[in-house]
Specification:
This is Deaminase/reductase. By secondary structure, the chain is α/β, with parallel strands linked by helices. The protein has a single domain, classed as Dihydrofolate Reductase, subunit A. The chain has six helices and twelve strands. Strands 5-4-3-6-1-7-11-10 form an eight-stranded mixed sheet. The longest helix has 11 residues.
Length: 191
């Protein structure tokens, strides 16, 4: 059975997307790509909202860039090897292999996907993740704290829930970021 993992780079004050719609909170050099590439080896499926999917489309062809460093090629290959599900009511077609569109987030379909998967599933994007969190589907949380405070935007966690989490692991990045791995330690409560 695969775990559903919610992971994003977030600002130090807890925002996944800033007030201007950006989420470029961490310098993504070789160390960051190598670390995340290693984390993604366990992932068989990515769940995205439309905007995050369109951002990640870069990886569909990144390996073809002239003089692409090996860490970019390796990360691209890891991304390409996984299935992708895009939740969107507006996207008409996909621009990557191994990708399908779903018009709504179906909790039962995600439960079935988890039960049938021998690899992990990553949910990326605070709005789509909020649906999984509220349904009690998320097994692990992997926020990556950046050394930036942005003062507002869309938070990593939805505002109307309370979670008690247990820290399982951490990893410091030379860029000043820190990857954290949490699991729920108690059932979720609504605020």
């Amino acid at each position: 059975m695969g775990k559903l993992i919610y992971s994003m780079i977030i600002s130090l004050d807890g925002y996944a997307i800033d007030a201007e719609g950006r989420f470029d909170f961490l310098e993504a050099g070789e160390e960051v790509h190598d670390f995340f590439g290693e984390q993604l080896r366990s992932v068989g499926t990515y769940l995205y909202g439309r905007r995050m999917y369109e951002t990640m489309l870069f990886w569909e062809t990144a390996h073809l860039l002239e003089n692409a460093p090996s860490f970019i090629v390796d990360f691209a290959r890891a991304w390409q090897a996984a299935d992708k599900v895009v939740y969107s009511t507006t996207l008409q077609e996909v621009a990557s292999e191994r990708t399908r569109i779903e018009r709504s987030f179906d909790v039962d379909a995600i439960r079935t996907l988890k039960a049938a998967s021998d690899k992990d599933i990553t949910i990326v994007g605070p709005n789509i993740a909020a649906q999984g969190i509220r349904a009690g589907l998320v097994d692990e949380y992997h926020p990556v704290l950046s050394p930036k405070v942005v003062g507002g935007g869309t938070p990593f966690f939805p505002a109307d829930i309370r979670l008690d989490l247990t820290l399982l692991d951490e990893h410091r990045l030379a860029s000043g970021g820190m990857w954290l791995r949490y699991v729920p330690s108690a059932p979720m409560a609504e605020v």
